[in-house]
Amino acid sequence: MARRLRVSSAGVPEHIIQRGNNRQAIFACEEDMQAYIGWLKTYSKKYKVSVHAWVLMTNHVHLLCTPSSADGISQMMQSLGRMYVMYFNRSYKRTGTLWEGRFKSCLVQEETYLMQVYRYIEMNPVRASMVNEPADYFWSSYQCNALGKKSDLLTPHSIYTRLGRNPKERQLVYRGLYTEQIEGKLLEDIRQATNKGLAIGNDDFFADIESLTGRLVVEGKRGRPVGWRKKKND
């Protein structure tokens, strides 16, 4: 079966996941994570991709980005992935692949789902029982978005900047979003959309993206469409 073509659109946020092959570790120490962040900074700037949120886990990475061109994220991830594999193989005297195929991604509707995806990404270490609070995990954007830590990787999304009139207000409101875990249908919707390369949003968002790209971004129904036999016989 042919793999689904990736859908990307300039100015539309994307949630990205990149995993290690067979769930193997892609970071063995903090120096590895620092190297990955360094190349993420380099290539996000080169290809004009704004990075709003991230988390580096032991065997996978989550990013929330907005590209300025339709191919910006693909170019960024290809260059980043290639450089990191060269570094990792050289550091650990290994050969072969590191990634589980190509990265996965989904388009994110700004008004309804963007802040939910921020939370989904930065709560990963808590869901994995690595820390009790997202602030306790160093290798994510939570300390930047919620506590004001400076990072030249971070570009706040306009939805984030609307949370308050100044940085302190925005950080306070942002921390208030983390009083509860993401769970249930919302958690599953984000996972499914990302793993299948679809979109998360409402019907108007889906229609807008499909009009822009000419591609379906929701999972179609299996089997023949309703009424197909009647149309055939007309």
From TrEMBL:
A single MF term (Gene Ontology): DNA binding
InterPro entries: Transposase_17, Transposase_17_sf
Pfam family, one: Y1_Tnp
Transposase IS200-like domain mapped to chain residues: 9-124
Source taxon at top rank: Bacteria
GO BP annotation list: DNA transposition
Name of protein: Transposase IS200-like domain-containing protein
